[in-house]
Amino acid sequence: MAEATKHNTPIKGGTLVSDMKSLFSIIKTRRTVAFAYGFMFAFVAFTVFLAFNPNPNSGAPWFSNIFTTSSTTSGSGSQFSSFFSSFFYPNASSPSQQFQSSASCPQPQPSGSSNTTLIKQPPSQTQPIVNSDKPPILSPNQTSSSPSIVSLAPKNSSSLPVVKNQTQSTRSSDKATILEANQTTVAAPITPVAVPANKTRSSSPKSGSSTSDAEKGVTSNYTAALNKQSNGTKSSVSVEQRKDDLIKSLLICDLFHGEWVEDDSYPLYEPGSCPLIDEQFSCIRNGRPDKDYQKFKWQPKDCTLPRLDASHMIELLRGKRLVFVGDSLNRNMWESLICILRNSAKDKSKVYEAHGRTHFRGEASYSFIFKDYNFTVEFFVSPFLVREWEMPDKDGSKKETLRLDLVGRSSELYKDADILIFNTGHWWTHDKTAKGKDYYQEGSHVYGELNVLEAFRKALTTWSRWVDASVDTAKSMVFFRGYSASHFSGGQWNSGGQCDSETLPIFNETYLRPYPPKMLVLEKVLKTMKHHITYLNITRLTDFRKDGHPSIYRKQHLSPEERKSPIQDCSHWCLPGVPDAWNEVLYAELLVKLHKKSLHEQLQQQKMRA
């Protein structure tokens, strides 16, 4: 009985242990295990898919909102989302191209004081996720004390304004900020945002700005010129970046160390298109048959010399006086610049010489007026920069001397010009000045004999002291153009020297001549001056160009005597030609000076605000 009672429990079902063993024996089959794992993986994958890409047409909006509502404090979106997007869609260029949110929650205004207008996206727009290491794009004269929250604007957007010239003071945020070119930031590094292409901005002008309308026009015209050079294929942001890169390269570049390269886009104006060129420089009109000498441009070794944009330079010169002072080589450069600028004037009839002159030899000064643009380009004859003089000789006649202690007579007429370009050199090689006998004078004393280099130093010292004392270099830009090389072969200008057979530049530097001693004297004098003078050292640049002189094509009609033994001009230059490159160097220097002036004004404005 006891034995029966002992085994009485497992009636109709067996024991609990035996039942469990039977259950696990069924599960242990391979197919069952594979099915279970497959079901679990599919469930997890489906859940992840719904979490990061909810169906926008779902009938359960509460489910969608759970996964699409984002926090404004992170500012960069879910890092999880970015990870899974790149994992499941490795070939997608942007997560925004693969995923679209079904609802967009408005972002709250950032805490703290801010003058920046917050740009909000319309609910249906996709916000691209941008992660760029490029430098931020800043607005002119804008100061940012910390990053601010600015929504990203879609491409081709023309209705979303970006406010310029604002001081931003907001709490730190991970959101990337759209900044304009030349903006100054005072903050920890932030993730910059690339401005979409073809985006149109509307901006308010800076209040209390001292920038004139003309200077604003300069900036806009220069940007337009760069756009034109890039065939309009790049956005305005890339143009601004290219402009900044150009200026930075010019700041550290030796513009005068380089070579001449062929360029079929030259000359800057068509031969024969400028009626203002003197006969002496108009080689094609005078019958010169070859034209290849016009197809070269100067290329510095370490940077690109920008092509002279005459439309932009006209804007730079609005309301200003640009004055050349010196000898006939500066007249060569003066005529070159007038023709370049006139070529871009809308109404060429409003570009004229102040006194109606059409020939530019024999008078003390000339002035070309660009009436529509309210500026002048002038030339004052002063071949020595110091005063030519006459004094009584012993026999009662008058003796010509050179007053090394007095600047030229017309100096008071141009000392207030906005841009001054001086030169001297060629007249110091003539017999009288080279020999230096009974010619150089200081006060009432006439030197019986004085070395020409010492006389040159004395003359330049007199000029430099006058500039330091009389020219306001805070207002006026002062340049000194160096010596232009001559290429007489077989004699000098008055002794059978020739260059008419030259049709190509020198390409081998070993054939260049040593640096002129007079220019070494000039450099020493410039270093002693109180004010900075920009030295346009074109000596080496011109030494390559033995092919660029008028030679026998200096006159249109030669007399019978001149045909027998024509005097050749191997000092001056054909136009269009080499002096156009001097003006391109001048243009580059003006761009650099304008950039430095702008930075200085920004610094002063920041100090005033502080």
Largest sheet, in brief, is: 7 strands, mixed
Tally of DSSP helical segments: 17
Would you identify the regions where 5 or more consecutive residues have pLDDT less than 50?
1-14, 55-220, 230-234
- Between the first and last Cα atoms, what is the distance in angstroms? 108 Å
Q: What is this structure, in a nutshell?
A:
With 610 residues, the protein is an alpha/beta fold.
Describe the structure.
This protein has 610 residues and is an alpha/beta fold. The protein is built from 17 helices and 15 strands. The chain has helices at residues 2-6, 16-27, 30-52, 61-68, 79-88, 95-98, 213-229, 236-251, 310-316, 328-342, 411-414, 431-435, 452-470, 517-528, 539-543, 560-564, 578-609, and strands at 143-144, 184-185, 258-262, 296-300, 321-326, 351-353, 365-370, 375-381, 386-392, 398-407, 419-422, 440-442, 445-446, 477-481, 534-536. The strands form 4 sheets. Strands 6-7-8-5-11-14-15 form a 7-stranded mixed sheet, with helices on one face. The radius of gyration is 38 Å and the shape is elongated. The N and C termini lie far apart (108 Å).
Give the helix/strand layout.
Blueprint: H1 2-6, H2 16-27, H3 30-52, H4 61-68, H5 79-88, H6 95-98, E1 143-144, E2 184-185, H7 213-229, H8 236-251, E3 258-262, E4 296-300, H9 310-316, E5 321-326, H10 328-342, E6 351-353, E7 365-370, E8 375-381, E9 386-392, E10 398-407, H11 411-414, E11 419-422, H12 431-435, E12 440-442, E13 445-446, H13 452-470, E14 477-481, H14 517-528, E15 534-536, H15 539-543, H16 560-564, H17 578-609
Parallel strand pairs: 1-2, 5-8, 5-11, 10-12, 11-14, 14-15
Antiparallel strand pairs: 3-4, 6-7, 7-8, 9-10, 12-13
Helix pairs in contact: 7-9, 10-17, 13-14
